[in-house]
Amino acid sequence: MGNEAIGLGAIHAGVNLVAGYPGTPSTEILETVAKNNDGSIHVEWSVNEKAALEVAAGGAYAGARVLVTMKQVGLNVASDPLMSLAYVGVKGAMVIVSADDPGPISSQTEQDTRHFAHFCKLPVFDPSSPEEAYEMIKDAFDFSEKYQTPVLFRPTTRICHGCADVQVDESYERHIPDGFVKDTMRWVIFPRTSFLNHQKIEKRNPLIGDEFSSYRFNTLTGSGKKGICTHGASYGYVMESLEDSGQEVKVFKVATPFPFPEKQALEFLEGLDEVMCFEELDPVLERELVYICGKYGLNVKIHGKIDSCVQSAGENSAESVAKVLEGFLGIKPAESSFPKPPELPVRPPVLCAGCPHRASFYAVKQAVKGRKAVFSGDIGCYTLGNAMPLDMVDTCLCMGADVTIAQGLHIVEPDTLNFSFIGDSTFFASGITGVINAVYNQNDMILIVLDNSTTAMTGHQPHPGTGVTMMGEVAQKVSIEAILKAIGLTSVETVNPLDLSAATAAVQRAAEKSGVRAVIFKSPCIAVTKSAKQYEITDKCVGCKKCISQLGCPAIVIDDGKVTVEKSLCFGCSLCAQVCPVGAIEKREG
């Protein structure tokens, strides 16, 4: 997998320290390093991306080769230290992987990290295949060390999760850090120092752009009067379409969009009449070519997203690229000998059968039935609580925002019960400061912590509350309840959400109080625990379908007109048995 290739490439580049925060599509990079670690590399899941980048910066100051991993929205969290670090620089080498998610497939936004490279004035590498990613990550470390600057590495979902055969090194050199050397003019970011460093960066980047013009993964192929400029996964789609068409076209693959390889771009544009740009997500390459044509007075028409020749949002695909090329190159669409496949059925994501979050949402819903309440949600499995029939997520913005949005809602509508739902991992990542803000500003809200003892949405990574590190060490568990009490909450209850009556009563008690109070619903994710029971529907069933209409559990289905429990899905959480008004759902014998 591309992420495995990146992780192995970092190991073979001599990486000493790897820090990150899990987020699809980047997660497996750090996990690959941990899996293949002989103990000489420090690997950690940090509490958030900002912490990860700062930990890695310390390592790089001491001469280490460091890798930081995150998804594109995580780069927003890390942007504060990143902007300053671009000026300060590093002594060892630092590669920051920000995996973009065109689509988006599993993210809040479609965000193009190439803009961050331009904004931070940092070099960025953009691989087009798992094979290329393996080699390119090693080049990224070398560039970082040569220019003493952090560099960005920007794979997209199809590169991260695509698979290929990759030839890996059998041996590699270990990098030995030479240690931190005190130098306040270098490591302390004073305004005067920043001014001088900014000047150096502006002089440095054109030199990097010139070097990128001969970089091995920036390639020029083909000939003709028409050209294609592309990058990343889109390059594969372009080459597949051209191979099928038999057309000869000039193709410029850009692996380093910033600083832009201007000299190579001029070579590409020479003799062309028009160019089509295929890229994800924004018209970064397209705008660079338009700028170069204007700068050098070149009469070349540049097409792409700006003139709506290519769609402005979402992923490119082999099909979408082929359709654009049909018009651009005058290719007749190939006739398929295969029948058109049927449309895939719609399969919306739902909470797993047995998920404790379903019980938590249902308990809150029952506890405040008939009262005016708003439920602010967050990023994670529990975002799926917005689906019917639960309908328990009224807002979702970004990680940790549930806590603070609830506060803003209360200020404007103080007669409303404001709930904020946050997971255990997210609480550590970005929830604590929001709770402190609520206590300090004397807000009135109910914090619901959904503690399932893992970072579930991204693949069950450990966090400070689990007591396990990525180095395989047992650590002291950080208690959410103790933190909340230390912050100043006087009402904190911990309850098992699968005990419906107790969970509902705990929420009712919290609803009658004022100030900032919390209910911690603690029950492990079904992926990290096992159940020894299942349930079935007996002849007592009257067909009211309350178990279906109230819970939406995928294990409860209608078969031949009758409600039944799908044995392959039932986890034995017992929530449906507690909801059934006639006691028709019972523990399965054996």
What is the topology?
Layout (H helix, E strand, L loop, with lengths): L1 H11 L4 E4 L6 H9 L6 E4 L3 H13 L3 E7 H6 L1 H10 L4 E7 L13 H8 L3 E2 L4 H18 L2 E4 L3 H5 L22 H4 L3 H22 L6 E3 L4 E5 L1 H14 L4 E4 L8 H8 L4 E5 L5 H13 L4 E3 L14 H12 L26 H12 L5 E4 L24 H12 L4 E7 H17 L4 E7 L28 H8 L4 E4 L4 H12 L4 E7 L12 E3 L8 H6 L4 E4 L2 E4 L9 H5 L5 E3 L3
Parallel strand pairs: 1-2, 1-3, 3-4, 4-6, 5-6, 8-9, 8-10, 10-11, 12-13, 13-14, 14-16, 15-16
Antiparallel strand pairs: 7-9, 17-20, 18-19
Helix pairs in contact: 1-2, 1-7, 3-5, 11-14, 15-19, 16-17, 17-18
Please explain how this structure is put together.
The protein starts with a helix and ends with a strand. It has a 6-stranded parallel sheet, sandwiched between helices. It contains 21 helices and 20 strands. The protein has 590 residues and is of the alpha/beta class. β5, α7 and β6 form a beta-alpha-beta unit. The model has no long low-confidence stretch (mean pLDDT 94). It has 4 domains: 211 residues, Thiamin diphosphate (ThDP)-binding fold, Pyr/PP domains (Rossmann fold); 111 residues, 3-Layer(aba) Sandwich (Rossmann fold); 167 residues, Rossmann fold, CATH 3.40.50.970; 53 residues, Alpha-Beta Plaits. Helices cover 38% and strands 15% of the residues. It is globular.
Work out the helicity level: 25-40%
Mean pLDDT: 94
| Named CATH topology of the largest domain | Rossmann fold
Q: Can you identify the CATH superfamily of the largest domain?
A: Thiamin diphosphate (ThDP)-binding fold, Pyr/PP domains
Radius of gyration computed on alpha carbons: 27 Å
What CATH architecture of the largest domain do you see?
3-Layer(aba) Sandwich
Number of helices: 21
Structural class: alpha/beta
C-alpha end-to-end distance: 41 Å
Instruction: Compute the number of strand runs.
Output: 20
CATH class of the largest domain: Alpha Beta
Low-confidence stretches: none
Give me the side-by-side strand order of the main sheet. Answer: 2-1-3-4-6-5
Largest sheet: 6 strands, parallel
- Strand residue content: 15-25%
